[in-house]
Amino acid sequence: MNSYQEKDKFYVAVDCIIFGFEDGKLKLLVFNRKINPFKDSLSLIGSFVKIGESVSDASKRILEEFTGLRNVYMKELKTYSSVDRDPGYRCISVAQYALIRIHKSIKKIVEQNEAQWFEVQELPALILDHNQMTTDALRRIEELARYRPIGFELLPEKFTIPQLQALYEAIYRRTLDPRNFRKKILSFDVIIKLDEKDKTSSKKGAFLYKFDRDKYQKLQESGYNFEI
Questions:
Q1: Is the residue at 79 inside a domain?
Q2: Of 29, 40, 216, 220, which residue has the fewest beta carbons closer than 10 angstroms?
Q3: Is 114 a catalytic residue?
Q4: Is 125 found in the same domain as 15?
Q5: 187: containing domain
Q6: Which of 76, 114, 143, 196 does the annotation list as catalytic?
Q7: pLDDT band at 52 (very low <50, low <70, confident <90, very high)
Q8: What percent of the chain clears pLDDT 70, i.e. is strictly above it?
């Protein structure tokens, strides 16, 4: 007899904590759960892992289904395995988090899947331990921001320093001094000033910048600290 058949069985799920950045706000993607228990309640986007896929593949599948995006920066957060975490059945969840830039095509797909964005400062009550997952993911992103520029994933290719500051303020959830931020971010020497200006906010405009990925990669490999 196959000894595996004698063991207790349980489900493995993956829950995706998908953060998006739009108009200076960091947002979380949630949807109305489609199965019981807690059907129609707000939930992180998740699914059971299929027999023929890895946790990583499952998270990529979920992200593509709800946003239409592939090759997105996604990392494993941690495993949630409390015995009573899911009243439906014994289920262990491996949480993954992603950072994406919200644009029109993403909004359209999100709406088609009856999902919605909530600002992280105004999160609703989510099912199970999903609020805890979200809190843990926000802390991880704050830690991550100390070691690498986050804007690669969340800003357009060309951006202003005020736009970059708005992103860091959204991540840290606090206000940063503009002069100190500019001085600090320029000291990293990983952004390139362009001969173009963004004049959407004023006639004078603000110079546009882009990331220098080669310089960033070298500094990251050297263990450079990017903390703002």
A1: yes
A2: 40
A3: yes
A4: yes
A5: 151-221
A6: 114
A7: very high
A8: 99
